[in-house]
Amino acid sequence: MVKKSPSRRTSGSAVMIAPSSPAGVASPRTPGSAGQHAKIRRPLTSAEIMRLQMRVSEQSDNRLRRTLVRTLVGQMGRRAETIILPLELLRHLKPSEFNDPLEYHLWQKRQLRILEIGLLLHPSIPVEKDNASASRLREIIQACEIKTIDTSKNSETMKSLSNAVVSLAWRSADGAPNDTCRWADGFPLNIHIYTALLGSIFDLKDDTLVLNEVDELLELMKKTWSTLGITRSIHNLCFTWVLFEQYVVTNQVEPDLLGATLTMLTEVANDSKKVDKDRIYLKMLMSVLSSMRRWCEKRLLNYHASFHAENIVLMENIIPLMFSASEILEEDVPGYVSSAAEKGDVKDDLTGNRVNHFIRSSLRTAFSKMLEERNINVATFESEDVIETLIKLANATEELATKEKEIFTPVLKKWHPIAAGVAAVTLHTCYGTLLRQYLAGTTFLTNETALVLQRAGKLEKLLVQMVAEDFVDCEDGGKTIVREMVPYEVDSIKINLLRKWIQDSLKKGKEVLVRSKDPETWNPKSKSEPYAQSALDLVKHSKEVVDNFFEIPTIITENLVNDIADGIENLFKDYVTFVASCGAKQSYMPALPPLTRCGQDSRFVKLWKKAACSVGSNDPNQHLMDEDNNPRPSTSRGTQRLYIRLNTLYYLLQQLNSLDKTLSLSPRVIATPGSRYNKNRQLACCSFFDQTRSAIQAAIQHVSEVAAYRLMFFDSNSVFYASLYVGDIENARIRPALRILKQNLTLLCAILIDRAQPLALKEVTRASFEAYLMVLLAGGTRRNFSRMDHQMIEEDFESLKRIFYTCGEGLILEDVVEKEATIVEGIVALMGQSTEQLVEDFSTMACEASGIGVVGDGQKLPMPPTTGRWNRSDANTILRVLCHRNDKFANHFLKKTFHLAKRRG
């Protein structure tokens, strides 16, 4: 670069002055004609070159020189860096030295603006809010905006300005005496000034060249370091940026500028390893290198548009420049996070090399550009000339692959060992995507489609060969990246087209399912079809898909049948989950009340209750009886909707069997040896939907349980758990609740289809027995029992069982009822035992359960945990019987053993 640039010392713009004569007058010792002041050409000094490069006029230069002379008169020992140049200019330059008052006013405002930026806006040491000097400087600056300020020697404004500026410039961070004058070393002012100085090294006539005197100019600039607060590290960073920026703004025509940037970046890398990096340097480092990195990545992400055979050398410099900047940022800048990391982009795929991403991105962009040039889009596939377009695009893709291999791969291979292979895979994927888009709109194979596939096969062969040649020296033979090359598989296009049809059909099935699920209210479509409308829609679509599938004129393989069966099964499983999402039975069960001793009413209270019951004022079931004393069913609409869910599940089970039979026995399917299909289709045993059947059975069980527990603990709560045996046992028997239960069971059988009734009745049986146990063992403060109540309770439970014996014609077997009743009968039997026997049995079981054996003197019986699994052999169950036992012995035992309080309420 330097060799290309002419020297400014010998350029035609050099001034004609004598070395020691002021104002350009020739020296008397200069040879020349007598009586004439001859002008002698001499080489320019470094300072003069700098002035010319900075485009500073002679008038401004003369003013500056005069100011410096006046400032240093009588101060020979004064250091240059202690001169506050704008202040000295204001002090020494008068209005008379300017062309007119307006020019002087504008110049004065510029000097104050520099002081404001250096001392107030961007000082190296922050200014306190209450700093008096800062306030005074602001006032003077504001005053100058209106009119010119008086800067004469005896001016109060000038004295105030000088004092304020000097005070601010000579401050120290800790208030200690300071020997450093700080008026232009604050960031970013000092950096802007210094980069402007560095920019003077470029030739004014050709800004891509650096002057021969660059070293001398840089030495001059060094003299500003103490004033501007520039260090060697900051200089290297600024110089790197100036070189890089000059390359960019000069339209990237001079590769030597990029090479010089890369050379300087080596110095920056060394500086960044130093431990004593200050905050400002790190901030500059991140800003400069991030900008360089983004600029490099932008061009590398589309290097086909940025580079070609003639300027490939630029690419050879940009790649190491990007890597160097990235390495410094990631290793030496604390807390740095790249924009790609913030967005979550994964650039280092496969080989872990960023170049891998550049290759893929640039080729995809180049391929997209080819599509734009040929106006290829989805709409194009509907036109008649799509075949010719796809063939020409395959030719262009081959040309692009050749160009990549010949021009770019030799450069990229230095940074990525399998660059050509990545390029081939990328192009293969791009064209393959377009090919599949075309085939997606094709329902059968034509001659034109065959031509496209033939040309695609030729392109694929070329790209595969390109990959194979690149992977000769690869450790794994390129297996990792070759897996990305999804073959075009011309021979299997028919099967792929059929598979696409299956996918589309199943996708439509999901849409049907979504549309049907949203408005579903679980009301029956009709009396003859007591199922949900959404289930009817799903089954109708599934049958249409299967029927249309077997009408397609092509070979149907066993794998394709499996695909369509799996898709239908997924639809059904999704719908079954939707049907079963009806809550849990636990949400309807009341919370267990705390264990307390049985409370005994006074004789007056008992008489009052008896009188109240005799007039029916406390009849909890009165609201359920009409004038003829006929019970009404209490089944809520929510429970009836659960019955429709059950009907729907059984309907799905029936329709699945029909679909299974159609898929298994179709003669169109080509069976493979050893498959589920055999020659005798009638003997074939195929089952495609076993998982769905299992899911439906589980859903049936769940919905039956929820419906039963809702019926007993929610719908029938007022006549069962909330009323049975409340207060006086004799007047709160089970008969009213049984009448309501019988009506509810009649309604259940009327709504449910025949296949759903047995399991539903069994679950109602189980729920009713659970509710009965809750009354006996967890009835709360309003219930207490005596041993004499045992016979009534036993009779009531027999009546409850009888309801289920007589429900329907053998819908629920007596053995099933007896099995479910075993636990309840055992607990009812406990209520017939004496309190002493209950206490003895409880003590034995509680000790055995806790593992302490026999309770000794001074030991207390342990409190058994509440499991909710009631059983006559369970200590907690016996304890609850005792808590509800209305006698003194039970009361005394519970108070002494567990300090249980009496019931209240």
From TrEMBL:
Residues covered by the MHD1 domain: 450-592
Pfam families in UniProt: TPR_PATROL1
Domain of life: Eukaryota
Full protein name: Protein unc-13 homolog
Family annotation (InterPro entries): Munc13_1, Munc13_dom-2, PATROL1_C, unc-13_homologue
PROSITE patterns: MHD1, MHD2
Region ranges (Disordered): 1-39
Species this protein is from: Anisodus acutangulus
Ranges for domain MHD2: 731-842
